[in-house]
């Protein structure tokens, strides 16, 4: 029996050919993009004027798109909202929610994106400050900024918050790059 001389190269060539053939059909994009709750994210990201990809990156980092996610500190749902924060955001939005409703994707995303919009009002377009405040609270971020306009990742003293901010920003960049690749092959 004849063995291929370079099985690795054969696999690479097959993968490249499949990649080239599948790009125009959008199959690769469908497989690679986070489709969970995209429509809901788009609705509230548009309503509160937030980049939906940024919101998806936060959800991916917070809960990996698991609507039943709960942290050991008590955060609930896709966007890992603390109940007190969720109730406060619901009151500001003008809706009444129960503790069980906080984990419902529609409610959780609405309240989470609204909270992000409030943090943006305080911290401007400084994504590091917004994310750090989302994770560790605005009071901590005010302290960490030391009067500066922007917060640097290396100035975040909490390991969990430091890692969270880095991961959301990295996921956001990855999703943006994925979207650029998808847009290159639109016909």
Q: Can you tell me about this structure?
A:
This protein is mainly α and 187 residues long. Helix content is 63%, strand content 0%. Helix 3 (38-47) runs parallel beside helix 6, helix 4 (52-63) packs across helix 9 and helix 5 (83-93) crosses helix 6 (105-123). The longest helix has 26 residues, at 159-184.
Structure described in brief:
This protein is mainly α. It has two domains: about 30 residues; about 150 residues, Lysozyme (Orthogonal Bundle), CATH 1.10.530.
Give keywords.
187 residues; mainly alpha; 2 domains; 9 helices
Give me the secondary-structure topology.
Blueprint: H1 7-22, H2 27-32, H3 38-47, H4 52-63, H5 83-93, H6 105-123, H7 127-136, H8 138-145, H9 159-184
Helix pairs in contact: 3-6, 4-9, 5-6, 6-7, 7-8, 7-9
**N-to-C order of helices and strands:** HHHHHHHHH
Gap between N and C termini? 45 Å
> What is the radius of gyration computed over CA atoms, rounded to a whole number of angstroms?
20 Å
The major sheet is characterized as: none
How many structurally independent domains?
2
Low-confidence stretches: none
- Specify the structural class: mainly alpha
Could you please say which CATH topology of the largest domain applies here?
Answer: Lysozyme
Strand content: under 5%
CATH top-level class of the largest domain: Mainly Alpha
Average pLDDT, rounded to a whole number, is 88
Helix content: 55-70%
Which geometry do the CA atoms define?
Answer: globular
Q: Give the name of the CATH architecture of the largest domain.
A: Orthogonal Bundle
